[in-house]
Specification:
The protein has 466 residues and is mainly β. Helices cover 5% and strands 35% of the residues.
Length: 466
Amino acid sequence: MNRAEQTSRQRAWAFGAMAVLALGTLGFQSWPEAERPVEARREPYCARTVTPHGDRAQAREGIGCSYDTGFDDQSPSIQISRNGTLVIARGSGGVLVSHDRGLSWARIDVPALANGDDPAKGAHGYVHIDAVTDRLYYLTSMTAASCGPLKDGAVVSWSDDLGKTWHGKAVGCGTYDWGRLVTGHDPRALHGRSLYYFGVAPRLVGGLRPVYRSRDGGETWKKLRQLASVTTEGGAGVTAPDGTIYFDYPEYIGFWPARMLRSDYPFVPANTCREMIAVSEDFGETWRQQPLPDSRACNLLNGQQRVAVDKAGTVYALWSDDRDAKLYMVVSHDKARTWSRRVQVMPVGATFNNNQANIIAGEKGHVVISSQNTRSPTNPRVWITNGHGEWGAYLAESFNADDAAPLFRSVALDRDGDPSLREGESPSEAEAYLGISPSDEVWASFSRHGGKLGKGSRITAARIQE
């Protein structure tokens, strides 16, 4: 098959196979369910970072360590507070907290609202800590019974004492799974910080991403007028120091054909199957959609955490390319309008990526990538399905990621003979989230030995340290 035929087939698939996309996004598996062993809590595992052979003289040595939380759950996200407290979202009901850099973990339940809306009855729990106020937010989707029958909606709960006390509100009636939260600079908001809720509507798995903004920390919300994207489910989102908002998503059209008639969000056929970055420079009021020109991302299915911005405002985007299952990164110095040439950023020793990869940035040029990869000489992944081959957890870190030839150090976080995913196991939906503290400390959350959708995985936290 030549490249033109391959492109035609991929675009036809992207237009018409919504049912297949739904199955893939929900963790579709093509094998009998594997028996999951009962896993005891494991001691921390540490290994030295490595760099490509030719770059060793310039490398900063480090140690990557993985810490078992002792809890099984679904699709974890992670954040770090000012004092170093680690918080991981549970799929519903609350969070996991560590006050000793991952050595021990406790479960904190988030209470129901006074009106009965209960985070314990939701899904896709997501956690965010504001970098300025240190307020902890916990979001659960498909939770707000107060929205009415078949209206779903989300519950946003928040704590100003790292989980001792909680308040909350419902938001986004008519939105469904995979809501996300992000905060950012806004001079018109309380404490100069706006809170944004990204919804998924008008049904499960997709189509539209409406945006809601709160300028008082979650007490009241406004639905903003312009849709931010049309896809399966958009990415987590990040804000720049000046308040510009970014999130990633793969470009599809089949979820909302009427978009072809919209002037505020034009459909560009050439962008189909590209990785895209949605950008707002006016605190969520309006959005532009920027393609990553040399990307092919039909198989990504949903957004994750594939765009980051450092304290200098430089934007970094990451994706796993359909054509070779390798990870690539590009850089923008003009708010995602133009991009550098892509650079392959596979960890040392890894051969193929399983579509699980995320990126975060802190100080100028400082970037960390978390990913799940195989060392197999041939790619064991079968299209968009899971459960084929063995896959391990990796971290990669660069302190000059804004250079034309960035240097990364990387580390494999699994013990020999015990990969994060064995044959027959599934990633627990979207994995390998990242969080960064105001002091530039980065942590990742990973899942190990996942079962079918809803069965959960053992959650671990990991970091690279000097």
